[in-house]
Amino acid sequence: MARPSKTQDNLVYAGVWLACFAPLLWLAWRGFSGDLGANPIETLIRQLGVWGLRLLLVGLAITPAARLLKKPRLVCFRRTIGLFAFAYIALHLCSYIGVDLFFDWGQLWKDILKRPFITLGMAGFLLLIPLAVTSTNGWVIRMGRAAWQRLHRLVYVVVALGVAHYYLLVKADHRPPLVYGAVFLLLMGWRVWEARKKMLPRMAGELSQSD
Fold first, then answer.
1. What is the pLDDT of residue 8?
2. SS3 per residue for the chain
3. Residue 207 — pLDDT band, cuts 50, 70, 90?
4. Phi, psi dihedral angles at 191 (to 5 degrees)
């Protein structure tokens, strides 16, 4: 099979960037047209966080999709999507601190200590920072691929914290966070299954040697 041309690669990357930017443009348009509901600040903050969580799940889905569809080049887009997820979550936090709290750092600290969903959300964001910082090829070389991969498995903890943060945040309809939680469990289940498949031949080899 012929390798896609550089022009095709650039077009696909442009499509990925546009798809990742689209929710932000949509939210900006809704804000401009006064379509963010009765509490626009709350809607904006929540939607930024939700889109960050969605993009994290999309990033986790890329590896199984690449394997199942036999399209290994899909993995090339994982870093871009992950960085966009970080950007949305950073905007979610900055909007909460700047627009909702008006940079009242004392109130922020009280919220972190007293409101469990804030505690979980902040923990998830702090764990996401080193993943965003070390996302470049240069960091892979400096750390070594094995250590880099171990660090980036923190994304599983980040997504779990994000789902829990969202579940505790909503007061009435818990179906959306439950759906995201189910998707996360499905993606983690696939990873456990794949790891088990890799382990079985190794275990069989060790047993045959012991015989």
1. 76
2. CCCCCHHHHHHHHHHHHHHHHHHHHHHHHHHHCCCCCCCHHHHHHHHHHHHHHHHHHHHHHHHHHHHHHCCHHHHHHHHHHHHHHHHHHHHHHHHHHHHHCCCCHHHHHHHHHHCHHHHHHHHHHHHHHHHHHCCCHHHHHHHCHHHHHHHHCHHHHHHHHHHHHHHHHCCCCCHHHHHHHHHHHHHHHHHHHHHHHHHHHHHHHHHHHHC
3. very low
4. -65, -40
Contact 128, 161 (CB under 8 A): no
Q: Is the predicted pLDDT of residue 202 greater than 70, yes or no?
A: no
Q: What angle do CA 120, 121, 124 make, to 5 degrees?
A: 85
- 8 Å CB contact between 158 and 124: yes
Task: Please give the average per-residue pLDDT across 30-53, as a whole number.
Answer: 93
The model's pTM is 0.90
Whether 162 and 124 have beta carbons less than 8 Å apart is answered as yes
What does DSSP assign to residue 100? I
